[in-house]
Amino acid sequence: MSRIIKFGSCYLEVLDHYILLVEYNLAIASKDRQSLFAALQGGARNHTHKKPNEQNHSATMSHNHDVKLEVCVDSIASAIAAMEGGASRIELCSALSEGGLTPSVGVLKTLKNLPLTIPIYCMLRPRRGNDFVYTDYEMTALLHDMELLQENGADGFVFGALTPSREINVEQCQQVLEKAKSLPMTFHRAFDVTNPEKMHETTKQIIELGFQRILSSGFRQNALDGLDNLAQLIARHHRDIIIMPGAGISISNLEEILTATKCVDFHSSAKAGAIDVPDSTDGNSTRMECDVNMGKQDILPYDICDKSVVRKMVAIANSMAEK
After folding, report:
1. Three-point CA angle 282, 85, 267, nearest 5°
2. CB 135: neighbour CB atoms within 10 A?
3. Does residue 235 carry a pLDDT above 80?
4. Kind of pairing, strands 242-245 and 265-268?
5. Contact criterion met (CB below 8 Å) for 265 and 242
6. pLDDT, tens digit (0-9, with 9 covering 90-100), for 78-104
7. Distance from first CA to last CA of the chain, Å, rounded?
8. DSSP 3-state of 109
9. 10: pLDDT confidence band, cut at 50, 70 and 90?
10. Hey, which residues does 257 pair with through a beta bridge?
């Protein structure tokens, strides 16, 4: 038994519990039933582990040469700037100064009520720290947050959890994936804390769990230093998952990173200090001349996304894609 379900410009055929993605332009539009049948047969052999919310990344990467920029933001102003600059997707967080934590429902709801035309993926991270080892209480709180964000329009989620031995916490990942239902999931830079000598095995485990992307700096402090590992990961796993370089990507190093990794997605904050941006007075940040601060991070400039930086990054990516 099988049935065809239209999904955007593609068709999904449910066949013996396999979900197969077939390109509409190649098979359906041409009314070439034999090609359609052959594609389905080939897909059944090669994608037996795929889950319903996954796409065939092999087809995506071989036929779509667009290189997409995801911008991580922690404010309404940054989200608007990212969209206006031409970003393809937003990773919405709070407290990027702490590496990015779960955002507030109020910020998400406000953004979804704006004419914001790009997907918003929400970070799921209840506290700071590079251990990514969460207690049952923390997971309970995280799943409650996830439910509220989902109810208020989240288009996807970003999550990662580890065991004390720096391995993937399968049980906690499964809890979040089950809660996400059909929404796409990114495994964040907790991946970079795992053992780099087992990076391919860890990647396969994340694929089997059902994540669509891995955000990674290649096990280094920034993506430029991790180029070799990123290139290896993308070369081996690009048919099954999107490896998205991130951490320290800027206008000055973007071309080198795109050339070396051949990635289809990349991740950046594309930020500028708000106090240095002329049009940053819309409720973003004002430096108060006094001896009081609300925490050690107040000593540092409050950074927001700069839409001109986003535009330049998108232009570089587009020029690289055309080569």
Report:
1. 105
2. 9
3. yes
4. unpaired
5. yes
6. 999 999 999 999 999 999 989 899 999
7. 44
8. helix
9. very low
10. none
